[in-house]
């Protein structure tokens, strides 16, 4: 309902003059034979009932004119936003008749006097007041169950989210550097072991070569080899 009011607010006072002129001829509620506090369902049921009673096919005198008026009344009261405009135009006309023509030139002041509170407007349009839960000011744009979040809380959540992101990135970089460093150390240790093994193998081969050389020398001199 609040969305309808916000959407139709610019057109409300543009429609007042039209509905005001129609009001002098006949009242739509009287045409439909319903109370101004009737619900939309009651208005629809009254229209169906009256349309059957005064339908032109019945052949009654004057039924065509009454049927046209009935359709005109239902086209206005059958929709919530046009009914709201019609009701407000009637209230404006009532105020203007008591305060003079100058009140009609001050639409904002007149609007404020049409409904003294939102609760009055809700009762007028729906037939029942809204509950305290529906009037919860923390409801986000009037949507029940979705609470409004303060800017401070949003900023705090964004800061926490950014801090967690930076911490995770720092941890990932640190672990990557540590892993690379450890990998280099392992490779260096392995290379040192391999080099030491090569040196050992080379040293052993040279010793064996010397022994074989000494054996050959002894054999030439007629000395028994050491082995």
Automatic annotation (TrEMBL):
Transmembrane annotation, as ranges: 154-173
This protein's encoding gene: LOC107264266
Domain called J: residue spans: 27-90
SUPFAM superfamilies named among the record's database cross-references: Chaperone J-domain
Keyword terms: Membrane, Transmembrane, Transmembrane helix
Keyword Transmembrane in annotation: yes
Name of the featured protein: DnaJ-like protein 60
Signal peptide: none
Residue ranges that the Swiss-Prot or TrEMBL entry lists as coiled coil: none
UniProt keyword annotation of Membrane present: yes
InterPro entries associated with the record: DnaJ_C4, DnaJ_domain, J_dom_sf
